[in-house]
């Protein structure tokens, strides 16, 4: 029972014990057909297709490198995405992706509210899939109700069992596909089939089977309404120009049965197009009656539009009594004003600009980064030492990264300190042109200590900018790392 | 749920309020979703099970042990054993390799330096500082001046046996207290101090005219035996080089005079009994790589 809708004239009563919890209203949405349902089918196929098949896409990266197009290699600390290879020290790309994702979500929201929720959110996609299975096995809600009365207990139990079994199969394969992103997919699939897979793979399959089954099979719209923070944030970000699924009450009200409204219309009295058939409510996966206005629980899936359009076509009235429209336009039409569309507003432009900037920066850095890297960390303790001959020396830890799948040799040099002497501890194979040469293995990071000293007289409280530089002896590519040289 | 304001009913929804109000916005007393409530109950149940299974309640002198018998101390021991087993592969290599081999194998060197850094922080940092920078009386291990020698072997020997420690093989070498023991008179001490300072081109303080000739004479008679004729020091005896720019006990005139008057002799403990040989190897390599190793 829902107290919120209990009665308009609530009478306070000393014995009226409010229920401790709200029992869930079970929602069994009816199947609908129409434009938005077709879009949802298409997106469901595409997104699930990508999710389940992507791990099997191969990508040739040469020897010694995995040939999986998308792979999170936790053991070696690498992330592969087609031609992009990300190292742990480049984790900021992931940060950038998250920022981009947030901005895209904001932009979608500014244009059309919770549209992400209705079409692309994994929770919606899997719930949709689970509901299809449910309708396939147990029939649509009307058949269900009839079966509750007529069908034998055994048949109902069998159908329920079949439904849960199919759900679990989907859930299990959802978890199965997840782990394939973390290891070579064909190999792991074989291992899993033979029961020789790593323990952690089984564990994650178990976890994802469980969460998918519970979230998509049992919690469904409750996740979208109560657990997800996005509707709250979204509600604060939206404005009157956003296209939300809207019941056009300027056209629909006053509602009444088909007969009644026809009669009223004949008499020239006001009558709306809504015939109160409640198909829009029956179709809604979150149980919303959209005719009450835009609501937190509505995920903008458009299924009520399809449901109502079907009704409108049947009774020969224009479709889109419910449509993606703005609250602003409903109000304007009531006042007899022409509807306005404003897609280019301050917030949409701002989000779009930010997306272009962040995306552009990421593409630029991706394109410009070399296949080697250098970083320098100055010793903090001591900042400098005085040597016996009076010269000043600073020590640094240098890290050289070779991202190529072949061994390379880098010559190390330092600039910025007058009369600088460079000395390296560990890993020096030879000297070339007075520069120490470091050999770094394929796909490896090499750490060494660099000692820079100078005889030159430094200004008091000196802190000179220095630049370390590595040059690939064979290829000539260079990388630099800036730091400081401290003196007394 | 105690304080439901049944008389305060929201006009639109017909729901009573909780009596909480912020800026005119009232909180409706809607019930919780059932799944939420059940999650809450399950958490409470879980906490009870936890109390039974694991150590939870303090008693007067001990605590409830929990039926699983889990102990954090044992868990640590297991973790440590696992860690040792994991490291064994490298640890064995480190134990087998000579110091030179370690220096020449990049992976071993990295491993030894990492282990050495940790051991240094635990054992050596109190005297030599976290980065080995030392302080007055405690040598800086980053510079190129070594009392007992800066080669890998010499550093290892020093760590193993210490200096002026109780170890039988410790480095020995004491500087006499020339003034306190009455070997030299005050003017001689001042003269030799000025001379020693001049060896590393330190200027005399304003208003002082050093008697370098006399200082040189005193030096040759008393100091050259340990510090060498030219004052370049002797790592056999731990006698510092007096001609360089590094002064362990201070280079100002008063400090040098005090050193000559009272003698000096820093003590470093021997680590051979306290740290295992592999750790000492790692320490040696780490100290050597700090920048001063020869
Ligand atoms: S109200 Fe319409 S758009 Fe909103 S969730 Fe329900 S069916 Fe989807
Ligand atoms: S489906 Fe359309 S006509 Fe039927 S109740 Fe909903 S809005 Fe009214």
TrEMBL record, chain A:
It holds the Pfam family Fer4_5. Gene3D superfamilies: Immunoglobulins. Keywords: 4Fe-4S, Electron transport, Iron, Iron-sulfur, Membrane, Metal-binding, Transmembrane, Transmembrane helix, Transport. InterPro entries: 4Fe4S_Fe-S-bd (IPR017896), 4Fe4S_Fe_S_CS (IPR017900), Cyt_c_oxidase_cbb3_FixG (IPR014116), Electron_Trans/Redox (IPR051684), FixG_C (IPR032879), Ig-like_fold (IPR013783). SUPFAM superfamilies: 4Fe-4S ferredoxins. GO terms for molecular function: 4 iron, 4 sulfur cluster binding; metal ion binding. The keyword Cell inner membrane does not apply. The chain crosses the membrane at residues 41-59, 91-112, 165-183, 199-216, 349-368. Residues 264-295 form the 4Fe-4S ferredoxin-type domain. GO terms for cellular component: plasma membrane. This is Cytochrome c oxidase accessory protein CcoG. It comes from Ancylobacter novellus (strain ATCC 8093 / DSM 506 / JCM 20403 / CCM 1077 / IAM 12100 / NBRC 12443 / NCIMB 10456).
Automatic annotation (TrEMBL), chain B:
It is found in: Cell inner membrane. InterPro entries: CcoP_N, CcoP_N_sf, Cyt_c-like_dom, Cyt_c-like_dom_sf, Cyt_C_IC, Cyt_c_oxidase_cbb3_su3, Cytochrome_c_Oxidase_Subunit. The chain crosses the membrane at residues 35-53. SUPFAM superfamilies: Cytochrome c. Pathway: Energy metabolism; oxidative phosphorylation. Heme c 2 binds at residues 175, 223, 226-227. Pfam families: Cytochrom_C, Cytochrome_CBB3, FixP_N. C-type cytochrome. Part of the cbb3-type cytochrome c oxidase complex. FixP subunit is required for transferring electrons from donor cytochrome c via its heme groups to FixO subunit. From there, electrons are shuttled to the catalytic binuclear center of FixN subunit where oxygen reduction takes place. The complex also functions as a proton pump. This is Cbb3-type cytochrome c oxidase subunit. The lineage of its organism: Bacteria, Pseudomonadati, Pseudomonadota, Alphaproteobacteria, Hyphomicrobiales.
